[in-house]
Amino acid sequence: QVQPVESGGGLVHAGGSLRLSCTASGPTFHNHVMRWYRQAPGKQRELVASISTGGMTNYADSVKGRFTISRDNAKKMVYLQLVSLRPDDTAVYYCNAFGPLTGREYWGQGTQVTVSS
């Protein structure tokens, strides 16, 4: 089992940067695909970025070139670096751990990112 806990959200101006962190306790962190989702008010939750157990990354088209996902298996951490932020990036960002061997997934409580224009 993996329990994600996010941190690092906040209020920034358009064009600014943030780094979100997710600590995921549990002995099997390295076996989990780690993902960042976001949900804006009135919208469905969407996948922003993912990183495989081997370090392969994927991004939503809307964030390519601006967001970078990374992981540190030794520290059981996953990060999302956000640059060139725009007001439409405003959302609650959720860390998700997916175990491909078990099919189970675990969610954090979310961290708010607000980008002012």
Shape: globular
Major sheet characteristics: 7 strands, mixed
| Terminal CA distance | 40 Å
Strand content: over 45%
Counted by DSSP, the helix tally is 0
Q: Report the structural category.
A: mainly beta
> How many strands appear in the DSSP assignment?
11
The oligomeric status of these chains comes to: single chain
Helix content: under 10%
Task: Characterize the structure shown.
- It is a single chain.
- With 117 residues, this protein is mainly beta.
- It is built from no helices and 11 strands.
- It is 0% helix and 53% strand.
- The chain starts with a strand and ends with a strand.
Task: Provide a concise account of the structure shown.
The chain has 117 residues and is mainly beta.
Question: How are the secondary structure elements laid out?
Answer:
Elements: E1 3-7, E2 10-13, E3 18-25, E4 33-39, E5 46-51, E6 57-59, E7 67-72, E8 77-82, E9 91-98, E10 105-107, E11 111-116
Parallel strand pairs: 2-11
Antiparallel strand pairs: 1-3, 3-8, 4-5, 4-9, 5-6, 7-8, 9-10, 9-11
Spell out the key features of this protein.
four-stranded antiparallel β-sheet; seven-stranded mixed β-sheet; mainly beta
